Amino acid sequence: MKRLAIFIALLALSTASFAQKKKGKSGSTPMLTHEDSLSYAFGLSVMENAKSAGFENLSDELIMQAILDSKAGKSKLEKDKATGIINSEVRKNAQKKNEMNKKRGEDFLIENGKKAGVQTTPTGLQYKSNVEGQGIMPDRNDKVTVHYHGTTIDGVVFDSSVDRGKPATFGLNQVIPGWTEGLQLMKEGSKYTFYIPQGLAYGSRAQGKIEAFSTLIFEVELIKVEKVD
Predict the structure, then answer these.
(1) Which of 202, 210, 213, 217 is catalytic?
(2) What is the spatial distance between Cα 196 and Cα 153, in angstroms, rounded to a whole number?
(3) pLDDT of residue 22
(4) 28 pLDDT above the threshold of 90
(5) 218 is catalytic
(6) Which of 8, 159, 192, 217 is catalytic?
(7) pLDDT tens digits for 123-176?
(8) DSSP string covering the chain, please?
(9) Is 148 considered catalytic here?
(10) Are 218 and 150 in contact (CB under 8 A)?
(11) In the predicted model, what is the mean pLDDT of residues 71-91?
(12) What mean pLDDT comes out for the span 7-20?
């Protein structure tokens, strides 16, 4: 949240002269120098951060007025108050996003649980057997070697050993609860699809492309089980 406020302050410093040059002119200003490109890059960075924080209805006119006021030393809001307003809105937008992710995941699992072949465990984990293997089954303390392909319910790929072309090996008690539970249902050679509720995945923790409170889908092949005494 503080980073967004810092970006806005930097934008005020780097684009005020650009705004002055634009007065009375039409069309785009060409980027002829390194400073031009840097100024434009700051603008892009600020707006991308604003969009990612959920700011959708900002006034271009007031943003530009704030830049000019800051440059002239005539800001209408004290810095701390401005930062507080931004941070409050970021928190509000994040809460809305979190609630939306939870609801979308819950709705997805309700409909998905009705599909043929999908089973739901008491914890809420859903799974579908695509291929049943004939090997041994792991316990939660065992090591496993798997191939997997992970996506969000929107189909966004966030991690894939399949794409990397190299299976992963790990302790079954070292991964998210949905994996620990799900892999214990499989035999070596099996291929399952896991539909993991956010509470059995990363919950409130965002992880790269995975937003907080996201329901996840994994295609998993259990290649090998290494028993640990």
Answers:
(1) 202
(2) 10
(3) 47
(4) no
(5) yes
(6) 159
(7) 999 999 999 999 999 999 999 999 999 999 999 999 999 999 999 999 999 999
(8) -HHHHHHHHHHHHHHHHHHHHHTT--SPPP--SHHHHHHHHHHHHHHHHHHHTT-----HHHHHHHHHHHHHT--SS-HHHHHHHHHHHHHHHHHHHHHHHHHHHHHHHHHHTTSTTEEE-TTS-EEEEEE---SPPPPTTSEEEEEEEEEETT--EEEEHHHHT--EEEEGGGS-HHHHHHHTT--TT-EEEEEE-GGGTTTT--BTTB-TT--EEEEEEEEEEE---
(9) yes
(10) yes
(11) 81
(12) 46
202 is catalytic: yes
Which residue of the set 18, 148, 153, 223 is catalytic? 148
pLDDT for 54 beyond 80: no
Active-site annotation holder among 127, 195, 213, 218:
218
**Exactly one of 18, 40, 55, 158 is catalytic; which is it?**
158
